[in-house]
Amino acid sequence: MKTLVKLGFAALLSMNFMTANAQKNNTDSNSLLWEVSGNGLSKPSYIAGTFHILCSKDFDIKPKVWNALNKSENFVMEINYTDQNEMLAMQKMMSADKKISEQLSSAEATELNKVLADYGTDLKKVDNHSTQALYALVATKAIPCPQNEVKMYEIELLKKALGDKKSVGGLEKVDDQIYAIGKAYSLKETISQLKLGNDYSIAAKKMTEAFKNENLKDLDQLIKDPKFMNKEQEKYVLTDRNNKWVETMPQIMKDKSTFFAVGSGHLWGQNGLINLLKSKGYTVKPVTQ
């Protein structure tokens, strides 16, 4: 169960790309890979929208992505998975000082226990988990295959980057993600999301196909579904983090040609990285082949 929750935590921010508001000028070409140039950069950098975890049968990294990574000197993910302190922080995130059952009425606890059965667990097994770890279970609905058949998009890219002795970094800390999820989803809001498990399963299948086809029009249809995230939650999970990242990215790109790998929901929209970088004077264009 702990392994499953960790996988879910890694995937949940990828699931959150269902809530970004797409802009027409950001969906004029089907691509999840974008080149960043101009504004004083001596070499272009790249941003790749990822789907953090996929089943092996659905997993594919297109040649253009490998080519962009090969051209880059630096590889940057949302979190630096090579940093042991960050991995310890993720482990710490799993537990909470106060039990979940102590924060619920008897009736609410009974109801949650029934909901958790659909996730292959029960309240007793997760009672010491944090709200963020509980919320991570939602994302496991996006993984319709056994744990030994999943692949992590960023990890496959990371292996290549390390093999090529590239510099590796992260745009934020695990604590930043924990804070964002904690602010966006209270315990009761998390339970409400858990009740939408089947809806997540259906949406995830559609998103997987759209992601594989880089079909931004279909993604746009999916990401506007408000049932998974309201505007305030979007602010904490996407907008605020994007605004912080876009302040960090220019210096990283100035020092080295960089390949950024982030959840696809961070790319487009008025508050997406593409638009924010354009507003800073960069040329950001889709890489189609």
UniProtKB/TrEMBL annotation:
Cofactor: Mn(2+); Co(2+)
Keyword Transmembrane set for record: yes
Signal peptide range: 1-22
A GO CC term assigned to this protein in UniProt: membrane
Keywords: Glycoprotein, Hydrolase, Membrane, Metal-binding, Metalloprotease, Protease, Signal, Transmembrane, Transmembrane helix
Subcellular localization: Membrane
Main localisation: membrane
Listed GO MF terms: metal ion binding; metalloendopeptidase activity
Membrane topology (UniProt): Single-pass type I membrane protein
Keyword DNA-binding: no
GO biological process per UniProt: negative regulation of Wnt signaling pathway; proteolysis
Family annotation (Pfam families): TraB_PrgY_gumN
Protein name per UniProt: Polysaccharide biosynthesis protein GumN
